[in-house]
Amino acid sequence: MGLISSLFTWPLAPMRGVIRLGELIQEQVERELHDPAVVRRELETIEEARNEGRMSEEETAQAMEEILARLTGPPGEEGR
């Protein structure tokens, strides 16, 4: 039975590989979005830009709110 089922499902193997690759990429992106080191670097970059005058107070507040929303929001809602 295993031979027959593998013959019929063999053409779907590339599609399953692409789907799995997409899942792996999504997992990696979510890990990086919630990595404390990445978040800290982003906050430091924002603070540095504000101190150098490249960002206004309003832009700084908005950027920090976006980072905090990403951290505290439900998983899978980034960028929406």
Automatic annotation (TrEMBL):
Coiled coil: 39-66
Domain of life assignment: Bacteria
This protein's UniProt keywords: Coiled coil
Pfam families to which the protein is assigned, alphabetical: GvpG
The protein, known as: Gas vesicle protein G
